[in-house]
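Researcher: Here's the sequence for the chain we discussed earlier.
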Amino acid sequence: MTSTLTEGGTHREQREHVAALHSYLTRYQLVTWTSGNVSERVPGEDLFVIKGSGVEYDELTWEGVTVCDLDGNAVDGVKRPSSDTDAHAYVYRHMPQVDGQVHTHSPYATAWAARAEEIPCVLTAMADEFGGSIPVGPFALIGDDSIGRGIVETLTGSRSPAVLMRNHGVFTIGPSAKAAVKAAVMTEDVARTVHFSRQLGEPLPIAQADIDSLYARYQNVYGQ
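Model: Thanks. This is the structure I predict for it:
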């Protein structure tokens, strides 16, 4: 990953949109200090935009979001892109249906990741959003595409838009950056609720046929 560190002002509207989406991460307490990021594929181009490394959320404007190619190289922007850029690039290269990604260290979900334990599908909200349990991906070091490889390996063939990368945190995918943000918010919400339930006893599983029915209704009927 390299950075040109020049600002051409390209894709400004999309960069503004992605910058604004980071407010959800702080609003729902999914990140601490400058950790976490949102990225989104640029429609019709082999590019994506991603938060700059170490940029504080209170100071994040469109100029804090960098344009990168699908090899993770910065092509426009004065901020070095996120340390997770190579992982995001790998996912975009290998999952063409993915147009948005989010990474957080949200506390309850990351606690499950630290134990390498998937979050079981014991809530109808999980069946709706994730179509089953939230899986665990392998341990991978930051700085190259190892995390991206783990994300792709784990989520290929899965209905879940979220993966808990072992000892690390949450990565979510979606057909847009906002959809990936929603998945990150929901991941933390269900991780917290299932944790609370386990303090009272063993949560009751939902039958697979009911999970399938709930998922189909939510994905195809729910909403306007």
